[in-house]
TrEMBL record:
Biological processes per GO annotation: ribosomal small subunit assembly
Quaternary structure annotation from Swiss-Prot or TrEMBL: Monomer.
Region G3, annotated ranges: 74-77
Bilayer topology term: Peripheral membrane protein
Family that this chain belongs to: Belongs to the TRAFAC class TrmE-Era-EngA-EngB-Septin-like GTPase superfamily. Era GTPase family.
Coiled-coil ranges from the UniProt annotation: none
Record-linked NCBIfam families: era, PRK00089.1, small_GTP
UniProt keyword annotations, A-Z: Cell membrane, Cytoplasm, GTP-binding, Membrane, Nucleotide-binding, Ribosome biogenesis, RNA-binding, rRNA-binding
Domain of life: Bacteria
InterPro entries the UniProt entry points to: G_ERA_dom (IPR030388), GTP-bd (IPR006073), GTPase_Era-like (IPR005662), KH_dom-like_a/b (IPR015946), KH_dom_type_2 (IPR004044), KH_sf_prok-type (IPR009019), P-loop_NTPase (IPR027417), Small_GTP-bd (IPR005225)
Principal subcellular localization: cytoplasm
Stated name of the protein: GTPase Era
Region of interest: G2: 53-57
Length: 308
């Protein structure tokens, strides 16, 4: 006869409770928020470029590590210099994100803190834990100089944690997960274990095209340019995508097309290659350039182009 003993679950080594929480990534433009989000998720879900204000939407990236699910919300860099409808829209997005989250990552460049950083810091809620992320640590040549800088930062706010890192180093990213985990509430996961983002393939396609647009035009093209997906058809493993690059002036249209159409071809080629890698299939991409004067200062245009 088998001898069966009932052992309490606590003595059997019960699995740890699931944790899940919303984490906002905030900071002035160009401190590396999108690069950090992509590193945390493990795949590109937010575009990066040297042009200020690349991120315009509230982008959710998801990463599940053991029993903890981290739901990251990338935000636009808070706008302090312009008052167009686009910038007001971006700032509303930042405020909306901050009211919903469990934890805030305030990203600054290690060793630097300017007026725009201070303006963002002043907006952070008092009732949320805020972790100071000193990004681009690899660009600091003399680490000893960080000590007085950190002391000054601690005087500005009682940060829950201080994490110096380089978003490009995997070891730093893994260390950050361990630091953030205790701040997540004990509750069930919001997404499946293998989820990476709540954004659609169509949205990611428009963002990738916009990234190539900004990277290849440099500082000449104003950031008030956007990308709209006009047509999307799936034919087996092939995706047929038609998209419009929307600019404000005829002169900007010429910049995007380039001499003999060469720049537009390059934007299309680099976008297609990245889309094929992301979607693991063939892509036929057709790009057009359209002029819509004043779109960035029109609430109606902003809604029609998918801004919240």
């Amino acid at each position: 006869m088998n001898n069966i003993t009932n052992t309490p679950e606590s003595e059997q080594g019960a699995s740890p409770a699931q944790r899940c929480g919303l984490i906002a990534i905030v900071g002035r433009p160009n401190v590396g928020k999108s690069t950090l989000l992509n590193a945390l998720v493990g795949q590109k879900v937010s575009i990066t470029s040297n042009k200020a204000q690349t991120t315009r939407h509230r982008i959710t990236g998801v990463r599940t590590v053991d029993e903890a699910q981290f739901v990251f919300v990338d935000t636009p860099g808070f706008q302090t210099k312009h008052n167009a409808a686009l910038n007001r829209n971006l700032n509303r997005t930042v405020h909306g994100v901050l009211s919903d989250v469990d934890l805030v990552l305030f990203v600054v460049e290690a060793g630097r803190f300017g007026l725009d950083d201070a303006k963002v810091l002043a907006l952070l809620p008092d009732d949320k834990p805020v972790v100071l992320i000193a990004n681009k640590l690899d660009a600091v040549h003399r680490r000893a100089e960080l000590a007085p800088w950190l002391k000054g930062m601690q005087e500005r706010r009682n940060f829950s944690e201080f994490v110096p890192l380089s978003a490009k180093k995997e070891a730093d990213v893994q260390r950050l997960f361990k630091i953030l985990k205790p701040y997540l509430p004990e509750q069930g996961w919001f997404y499946d274990e293998d989820a990476l983002t709540d954004r659609s393939e169509k949205f990611l396609a428009s963002e990738i095209i916009r990234e190539k647009l900004f990277r290849l035009t440099g500082d000449e093209l104003p950031y008030t340019s956007t990308v709209v997906i006009d047509k999307w058809e799936d034919e087996g493993e092939l995706r047929r995508i038609s998209a419009s690059i929307v600019v404000e002036r005829d002169a900007h249209k010429g910049m995007v097309i380039g001499q003999g159409g060469e720049l537009l071809k390059r934007i299309g080629s680099e976008s297609r290659q990245e889309l094929e890698h992301l979607m693991d299939g063939r892509v036929f991409l057709e790009l057009w350039v359209k002029v819509r004067s004043g779109w960035a200062d029109s609430e109606e245009h902003l809604r029609s182009y998918g801004y919240e």
